[in-house]
Amino acid sequence: MKEEVREVTQSQYSIQALDAIFEYPLFKRSDFIDRTEIPKSSAERILKRMLDGGILDTRRQARGRQPALLEFKSLLKIVNR
After folding, report:
1. Helix (H, G, I), strand (E, B) or coil at 70
2. For residue 71, how far is the Cα from the chain centroid?
């Protein structure tokens, strides 16, 4: 998974991002940015690339003031067996 995230994100922050999604596999974008301390523009780009690359999925779309909820589905499948 480490190599896949590094390849998809093409970011120096790929390990920080991977650590964050393993620690909190269900999260809001703002929580991801706060926990990782990755600059906001880089964090947004990483999240977009992980969503486009199939590493992350959107569990709940944003609605009004309610933010989207993202998930690391592969880990959640293992944990919920």
Report:
1. strand
2. 7
